[in-house]
Structures are given as C-alpha cells and as structure tokens.
Amino acid sequence: MPNDFISDADSRNRLAGLQNLLASGERSNTLCPEKESPFASFSLLWGTPAGTTQIAPYSFYELFAEPASQEDKIDSFLQVIQNLDDLNSIPKGQKKARALEISRILRDFGGYKGLKWNVTSGIADPYMKFMTRWKYPSYQNSFSPNGRFKSLEFPDSSVVVDLPHFSASLSRHLDCYSDDCALPTEWASWAGDMFTYAAHLDSVRTNDSLSYAAIRDTALNNIGGAHPRYSKFFGTGDFYADIDARNIASLINNRNLSLYDAIDRYYKQKEFSRFFTFVNSYGGWKKFAEKVNKHYFFPLTVKLNPYLLEISKRAFMNKVLKGLLNEIGLD
C-alpha cells in the first residue's frame, strides 16, 4: 500500500513501521495476538497476485459456529465494537467522533463504500481500517452483506436489523445530526428508502395492473415487511436499520454515550423504546410528520409519480405510528 494513499503524516509513519515489520518477517503479539491468524492478509498491503483469488482468513468459530442465541450475537457484536474502539486514535472524550469512525469502517465492510459514501458520511480513517484488517482479519467478511453479522434477528418479534444498512445509516446520522445539513441526513436513511420504494411501487402497479387504491393497500400492508416483491427496497431489515440507526445516533448525540454504551443500553438492556425514541428524536409526532412530508429528493422526485410518492410517505408514517401505538398499549 503506497504511503501516498494515506493523508495523515503520523498515519503514514506508523504504516511505514508496520510495512518494515512485515518485511523483516518478525511477528508482533500486540499487532497479531495468538488467537488471530499470523498470516493476516499480506494482500492487503501489496495486492493479490494475478490469477489468484484472495481468501480472507476466518477463525474456526466463525466458519463452523453461529452464536447459540441472539443474546450471544449481541454480546459478540458489542465485543467487536469494543475491539474497534480500542484501535481508535481519537481522544476518548470525543465519543461521537469515535463512534463515527467505527461506523465508517463497518459501513465500508458492509459494501457501502466508494465515492458516494465518502461524500455522504466521510472517509474511514485509513490507518484504523488497516489496523482492523490486520488485527481482526475476519471482520471484513463477518460484516459483509452475506457475513455472520449481516443482521440482528429478534426471535420474539418480526424485527430484523440489516447491519450493513444500519452502519451506513448510522455513519450519516453521526456525520451530521442537525436539520441544516447541506445533504439531508435522511437521504442516507429512511427518506432514501422511502423514495426508492415509491419508484418500486410504480413498477409493481404497472406490472400487476393494480389500481391506485390497490397499490395504496399494498404499501400500507407491506412496507417494512417481508414480502419478496411488495416489501422490496424497504423491507424489515432496512426499515428497522433506519429506525435504530437514528435512535443510536440520538443516544450518542444527546446523552453523550459511547457507541458501545448506546448499543448495549438499546439492544441488550432494552432501556429505550424503539418508536418512542425515534419519534421524539424529531421533537414529537407533529415535527416528525412534517419532516417526512417536506422531503424532496431531487432529482429522483421529479421522475416519480407524485401520488405514489405520497402513498410511500403515508405507508412509512403509518408503520411508525403502529409501532408507537403498540409500545404504549393502544394498538
């Protein structure tokens, strides 16, 4: 990896030291403890030889075992967050900035990377990303769209959280949490999914020859659901990822929690109600509804059937409202 790709001078010096260490053939127990593979992807430094396939190392545990329960999976997820936080060079008092760096790395590992996402929520720190790959070489595969941490499922409910989507949405919320962002935060979260879903509804309506009344009912019954066609582009995994990313960002931003503490208290300790927290992060239902209604996603909006866009907005708000009423016992 040429040092020219690393912008920070200190990071370049540290990376040069690591390259020298690798070239010398010495092994560092600090950089590569015994529980990790001693052959931590040399191709990450110098590329994969032509005609060969890069095989990322897995631990025995990841290849042959899934966590015994969802609780174990959350514990494992929290351990990953702790491990990444230990690699973070940002001062410990800057909890939001530290959380943002972690979310950027997991965002990239989940496939949400490249120029679009670098512009949307910033570039992952090259040195921290390198150290993550070096010290925990299995993480990139584990957090890929088909990896062990592709989702969090909650067996006692229909809730599924798409973790790559969650990390991408979280990175944007942490990058700019306010309402005056040049690029609206929700475009990388529920608003982006809402507009994509509206475009999908247009395709469904045409292919199935559905009336507007029928497509409205289809959206109301399937947004945030699991139907292979009618929930596509805004299904269960994306819906709850968007809700939870906003909530975790809210806890970090407003309560000054670390990413570890926010995830622990939200998912494991269950101190916060999902939809109540989400709606109140916008200042209550009225302000949330105004937020949804005023979104204009140029240039996509001008290409959409305005009635289908309105249906998508109503369906999204209805799904949130049903969740909120369920939490307070009024469903």
Description:
The structure is a single chain. By secondary structure, the chain is an all-alpha fold. It has one domain. It is built from 16 helices and two strands. Helix 5 (95-109) packs antiparallel against helix 9. The chain is globular, with a radius of gyration of 21 Å. The protein starts with 8 loop residues before the first helix and ends with a helix.
Number of strands: 2
Name the helicity range: 55-70%
Cα Rg: 21 Å
Query: What low-confidence regions span 5 or more consecutive residues with pLDDT below 50?
Result: 1-8, 21-65
What distance lies between the first and last C-alpha atoms, to the nearest angstrom? 56 Å
Principal-axis shape equals globular
Q: Bin the strand percentage.
A: under 5%
Number of discrete domains: 1
Give the biggest sheet: 2 strands, antiparallel
Mean pLDDT: 83
Strand order of the largest sheet: 1-2
Please provide the ordered H/E string of secondary-structure elements.
HHHHHHHHEEHHHHHHHH
Helix run count: 16
Offer a quick outline of the entry.
With 331 residues, the chain is mainly alpha-helical.
Offer a few descriptive terms.
2 strands, single chain, two-stranded antiparallel ribbon, disordered N terminus, 331 residues
